[in-house]
Specification:
elongated, 3 helices, 61 residues, mainly alpha
Length: 61
């Protein structure tokens, strides 16, 4: 049930679309997978570009 609210909160669907049946369960699952992928990419980029300065490993000079 949480995945429905996650897609709704992301603005990918409206409550009207959900209640009227315009959006299928398969659509919601696909959108949730997209949000998971987007989150994974953002996390990977954060780890990639969030390197400490200082030259050596772990920011040591």
């Amino acid at each position: 049930m949480t995945f429905i609210y996650r897609v709704l909160d992301a603005g990918m669907v409206t409550m009207t679309e959900l209640k009227s049946g315009l959006v299928t369960l398969a659509d919601l699952v696909g959108m949730t997978h997209y949000l998971d992928m987007k989150s994974d990419i953002e996390y990977a980029n954060l780890k990639k570009y969030d390197k400490p300065e200082g030259g050596g490993r772990h920011g040591r000079p």
